[in-house]
Amino acid sequence: MTQTVRICVVGDDATGKSSLITSLVRDIFVTSKIQTVLPQITLPPTLGTPDNVTTVIVDTSAQPSQREALRIEIKKCNVVLLVYSDHYSYERVALFWLPYFRSLGVNVPVVLCANKSDLPDESSMAQVVEEQMLPVMAEFKEIDSCIRTSAREHHNINEVFYLCQKVGAVRSVFCATHSDNLRL
Which of 10, 27, 123, 180 minimizes the number of CB atoms within 10 Å of its CB? Predict the structure, then answer.
């Protein structure tokens, strides 16, 4: 039986959400300007997906005028890929995005993605984990895992979507087998 995992890619504008998706699909970084929000993409189970999983990737906009479309997509997904890329967008993870998900009443796992890790900064990987990822994971139990990526360097692109597929597939199977007892 083929499962479908729906990944909703969410985050502030200019964090590289569309670039992550494009880098996955094209296997290279696209240097030309890409559209702000990409159309929905469906990956069949044969394209490196775990356990015979069809994957639907939905790009979203952070614009307030698109908030209703964002709400609908978040409510339909199995897993949220929450992308940040700088200090400001990192701060908004805890101040806006995760409280927003809670306000919607959704109970889906979140994969937190620190994108644009190729950009120069003074932080080491250990420092990012200790100072950014671990504190927010401790505060928000819906965060399943965290990963650093770079669409430009194609660093951890396949891994971040594979992680979402695994988390979403486990949740999808759990919900299907416990649907009588589970309130989402």
Answer: 180
| CA atoms of 35 and 59, how far apart (whole Å) | 11
User: CA geometry: angle at 58 spanning 55 and 62, to 5°?
Assistant: 155
With tokens 């699909």, the residue in question is 25
Q: Within a domain: residue 104?
A: yes
pLDDT at 174 over 60: no
Residue 117 DSSP class:
T
Residue 127 belongs to some domain of the structure: yes
* 0.90 surpassed by pTM: no
Burial 20-47 (b: 16+ CB within 10 A, else e): bbbbbbeeeeeeeeeeebbeebebeeee
The CATH number that applies at residue 47 is 3.40.50.300
Reduced to 3 states (helix: H, G, I; strand: E, B; else coil), residue 90 is: helix
| pLDDT, mean of residues 52-81 | 96
* Structure tokens that stand for 70 in this block: 């964002």
For the segment 137-165, the average pLDDT, to the nearest whole number, is 94
Mean pLDDT on 117-131: 67
The DSSP code for 65 is G
